[in-house]
Amino acid sequence: MEFDFMRKIYFLLFLVWCTNAVNAQNNVLNGMPMPAHVQTNNAKCRVVKSFSAAVVGHPGQRVYSATTRTLRRLDERVGLFFKQGNIANIDTSHNATLLVQVHQPAQLQLYEDESYQLQISDTQIRITAPTDLGALHAMETLLQILSVDAQGYYFPGVNITDTPRFAWRGLLLDVCLHWMPMDVIKRTLDGMAAVKLNVFHFHFSEDQAFRVESKVYPLLTQLGAEGNFFTQDEVKEIIAYASDRGIRVVPEIDVPGHATAMIKAYPALASIPRKYELQRYYGVFDPTLDVTKEYTYQFLDTLFGEMAALFPDAYFHIGGDENTGKDWENSPSIQAYMQQHGIANGHDLQTAFNSRLLPILNKYHKKVMGWDEILQPGVPKDIVIQSWRGGDPFYASIKQGYTALLSTGYYIDLIQPADYHYLVDPAPDSILLSDEERKRILGGEATMWTEHTTAETVDSRIWPRTAAIAERLWSAKEIRDVNDMYRRLDIISLRLEELGSTHLKNKAMLMRRLSNGYDTKALEVLVDVIEPLKIYERNEGDTMYNVFSPYTKIADVATPDQKVARSFRNLVDAYLVNPQVSVQKEITGHLQLWQENDAAFMQLVQRSPVLQEAVILSKNLSIIAGYGLQAMQYLNGKAQPTTQWKAAATTALKKASTQGGRCDLQVVTAIEKLVNAVKVK
Amino acid sequence: MEFDFMRKIYFLLFLVWCTNAVNAQNNVLNGMPMPAHVQTNNAKCRVVKSFSAAVVGHPGQRVYSATTRTLRRLDERVGLFFKQGNIANIDTSHNATLLVQVHQPAQLQLYEDESYQLQISDTQIRITAPTDLGALHAMETLLQILSVDAQGYYFPGVNITDTPRFAWRGLLLDVCLHWMPMDVIKRTLDGMAAVKLNVFHFHFSEDQAFRVESKVYPLLTQLGAEGNFFTQDEVKEIIAYASDRGIRVVPEIDVPGHATAMIKAYPALASIPRKYELQRYYGVFDPTLDVTKEYTYQFLDTLFGEMAALFPDAYFHIGGDENTGKDWENSPSIQAYMQQHGIANGHDLQTAFNSRLLPILNKYHKKVMGWDEILQPGVPKDIVIQSWRGGDPFYASIKQGYTALLSTGYYIDLIQPADYHYLVDPAPDSILLSDEERKRILGGEATMWTEHTTAETVDSRIWPRTAAIAERLWSAKEIRDVNDMYRRLDIISLRLEELGSTHLKNKAMLMRRLSNGYDTKALEVLVDVIEPLKIYERNEGDTMYNVFSPYTKIADVATPDQKVARSFRNLVDAYLVNPQVSVQKEITGHLQLWQENDAAFMQLVQRSPVLQEAVILSKNLSIIAGYGLQAMQYLNGKAQPTTQWKAAATTALKKASTQGGRCDLQVVTAIEKLVNAVKVK
Which positions are tagged coiled coil (chains A, B) (predicted)? Predict the structure, then answer.
């Protein structure tokens, strides 16, 4: 995984200059993830009706499909009605506009070569790659750099060589807490491929549901899925779809905790005999497998055997997180077993359990992964640790000799901004690691837990932020310019729509629904500056929401990383450093809009009472915008502030951090900065 | 199917008065289809957090599911977090807010009782229905009349008794010309249920593809579907989903023409030995089954037997349309057979074919349907005729003793306006029919052929116009007020979004794509007044499009029934009758916007050359808007027109009907009216 950092920076700077000087729509620098090496030239490969693609070398079906899709996706943008249909054979004429040369088809496995070279001249686009995986990545890069000038569409002259920094670049999708049907899975896989992610972590067993058909244990879905599950044929379809896009599918069956659905279906697995129902709320629950019974191991051996055959990937995830241990403590037979076997506590019992699962899964030729709770003294070194509880255990596990994967910092369900995730590095310079240790960092995984996300809103929780994480896992660690990341995130966001992502369109749709058929404008203005409560604040005490709750409210239409709010914060920062008139005008424009919006919003609430819960946000926004406007006047010396004014403003700003509809305002601190900048004599 | 028309009109008028007088957001009159009898009272049944639903009587699973869905859909609108989970049992307490009483579960079959009564008092909503089908319809009506006042959400006091005019209210969806995946099917079924349609006509065999798995003839999909087909499990899922919503699924296997995919998979079926490939273009093709071979009958017997078992509905559609007869004419063996058996021509041969299929399908307990071409002398009377080629053959078939279904006038793929479809009546007063004959009119079916429609655009071709057809098939024939239909269509259009329809959101999405990341405003202004070429004009000579063509262009973002254009036409008509200042201002506002829009649009085209094809539309719009503005000045006596001016305007208007991007302007005739109204001395 070599890369040439200084050379790259040099070219980037050169390109910035070229781009500004020559043509604002040359997209060489708009891609995400940023490639390792980019060399430009003045060529322009025009996209015309006779555009064609050909595959040479020793390709597999994957490259044929991907090249055909590339052709269609390109034509859907340029609208030229290319003549070529499906690509299904080697074409040795070498005359095609896009020539894809592949040395050999890849095995979908960790550390497979994903590198590629993309060369564009006036007459041809040449992709060369050791494996088809590289060729797929190259085509995604190609589609990202399509450019426009006065003569029309073209691909800019470039020589890109590229390879990922980390071999494991994943996204976990939880299909249990809310059901995610096939179309969600497929468009998620398409989006992943577009940003060069290569592992789909399929989280399908939970307290609320078990969502993959077992033919050996059919009750798992008959009693544990309420009709919403994937048949084995559908799982095969998902795996084939993913494989076609160069994405591995790693299954997770979470044991011994988070297993209420399994226990409801097969109560003999339970630690405590009681009536089991699927969990309807979200959080951490007590039902736990009885790991002292032989039945449990026979059951898991059979189930894992079936699932190991269904999922071809070499890795198998056994969860292991958030076992409360209470059911073990309350079971006399388990306590007796522990005493008999000298097992001191629940942690040790879980480690004993894991140690028995390991040979079972090894028997099925699987490598085992688990969440970082499984990292207890005595856990075998060949279990891969997925870290979610913080960076320290992650690096501790690496230093102890484990191979590990980072998810801490990539919990996209927690509604944190993209720049937060972007700056989390799996192998930061601040941690002293040997080369050997560094090699044991496989990469990372974004995690999409779906407590507060339905099929309608899940895309807006995954995209575009996950593209920033994808870049962190693919590109050089020195690529950390947050502003440039946000600039490119806006571009990739629109490109993801082409692949079916609903993150933009469902936001508009939900606003129409929330506005009850009336004009959405007042709602839009408010939504632009609010975000859902972050981390675990939205579901206070784990009691506000359950699986029947409506997820069509203002907290569902609001998204992370609200652009208007971010841009306002940047404007204020810029203004306070250098109070330019143009910036001042932009700021007051925003503030006036917000101040006046409340009247229109209140009218809308009369017509759509579901918005009532957001009234406090709208009122507070109006009030603090008013103070912001006054602050701007004072800052411009147009009036003289009083101590009373500043005290009142400060009080109002404090009040404005109150939540409404499980959201809060994202411009409070920026307005506070304006108020604080006002000097009272 | 009695109904009380004068009483209804009386109540409607009364309601209009009440509605205007009391509360503009009482939605009793906003429903679609309009119920048969509506009686209002002053009650208001408030929707509060403790809202609950219960089912009593002798319901089946269908009512439990539907009531649960109703609860969730309501909560997703009002956002109150109802406490009730899934409904799965009889609740004899009779205390629920919504009480659903069902006499017995329905068989999903023609002429099953679909009537219901819906009574709303201050404290309770009571639905009573002979079958669960009626209860399902009642719940859709209920969700349509949710109202709002200053105290919040309520259901208005009402006593509705309702029953459909026609027993067969269908929608054909062609999944062959373009692939339509499961999510399209499901959301289409949800939309159908919302407007009380009850037959899903599943058109899955064509020249371009065969899209339902056969286990007996697996090559049908292995060679005939390019990977895009429904497995038998998925078909069962579709049927269950439809059944859950009270919708029958009628399969169509189109024979002996439109059968290229079948022939490619099993060439022994062919009339002419040649190399067969799936058709890539659209239109009518020669490949035809050889109906003189015993193999063909054995094949169809086996295939129909398999499909008859898969699809439980009593009806089975054998297509029979658009057989060119050429392959039969060119086959020496077929010609010899015809001579030998005294068969005079292709029509007679097809009739002989149909006569042999009939007993095969009867053996599998199926009634047979076919397109109106099969209506030839000698065709058995128990074949149901589906008319698509015009009203005359339809009524002729009725008079000849056939049972028939109308699709002529309901071809929604042809982009005609909703009012055109709305006014087509399957049993109009203008046709003299006996009661007996009238009874043989089963109803009608909207047909969604998908040549020029992908999964991304199909919803905008189906909705909301199909709701107008649904009303025609359900409601009294006297309900024909086009303006009121359009008013309600806007409302139902938004309600259909709640069920997942993408007809609004994908329009916005396609505009973002077409604008290449730039502001979509100029494109929106243009798109608002253009529509795709209608009837069969878009695909000139059947050569412009094929299965690989991009359907992401301006003709795909443009929809039928553009509201801005329609409203402008209405404004002009109103103005020419009564030139009010307010109307004049609205008209000139539109014209100015259009005149000025071209500059912004041209800038956008520079950045997004895919829009180049629409430049002519934008230019012409700008030009004729200019003439329109001048006409308005002349009409206001502010200037004196010249003969030259009028001639120039007329020429420009003539030119403005030129297509661009397979669309045309929808405001030309309206502006022409303004110009024509100008008197030159």
Answer: none
